[in-house]
Write the structure tokens for this entry.
Amino acid sequence: MLGARFAIVLAAATLWACGPVQSTSFLMDAETMLEAARTAQAEKLSPYEWTAANLYLHKSKEEVGYADFEQAVDYAKKAVDFATRARDGAVKSVRRGERPGTVGSTARPE
């Protein structure tokens, strides 16, 4: 009987400890993807997605501070999604010949 209780307590403690590790992993993924988006000039070429990714990352870090790891992971996943969209949108804009500051326009200054 005592062994079963110990096993339950040990299992609960192990599951509780996964929250910080998992949220940290997703936060690192989000920061890495944001850096990739920054390199692709997403700040200027995909400003909406860039802003959303940064706001979700900020909110994820805030939730970690409150030890709400499940919410932190959800927000970090959204940050990764928007950062990926920002990077992809910026890369497509560059391929179309757009320059930073001329979003949506393929016209080039003479």
